[in-house]
Amino acid sequence: MSAEQIPQQTPPGGGPRGRYAKSEAVRESILVACIEAFSVSGFHGSTMKDIAQRAGISQTGLIHHFPDKAALLVEVLKERDLQMSSIMRSTDQHDFFHAQLDVVRDNALRPGLLQLHTTISAEATDAEHPAHELYRERYDNLRTYLTALFEMHQAKGLLRVDASPRALASLFVAALDGLQLQWLYHPEEVDVAESLQALVDALLKGIY
Hints:
This protein is mainly α and 208 residues long. It contains nine helices and no strands.
């Protein structure tokens, strides 16, 4: 058998698939470390060195995957948006509030991400913050969608209150963020899903 005929043995984990799996595992550990660091210190208070240490890699290794903190933050927020979208995208307008309660329950399983959202949403009010536009658009889109949803219920005579759909949309978003903030302080005392359900029941006539 010639040298060309001898089967080439790929060391375990050394082939393309092994390298890909290792790279994905490192990337996942970086994102987890990023969530921890940003949740504790915020975006401005965190450093690439701290994130690398939390991920158990060198700072050079971290930069190989993500060139700077802004890229890290955007990736973490995109990942969370994808997770929420997977819960919400199968719903229609009539099931929106049920789906939102499912998202809230999922958030409770990921306190680090919820703490990150709370921290960054406050920091990102600064127009120079890398997540400013992302959060502004997120809030604008959510209010716009909710306004249309309340307008639909209003047209059907299903609102219990004499208030503008736009105001109700802002109220719901405020309740969502405020309740989740309270839950982070005292999860044993605050049931976000139960409280949101009570709000929906108070606003809409028994359809949810």
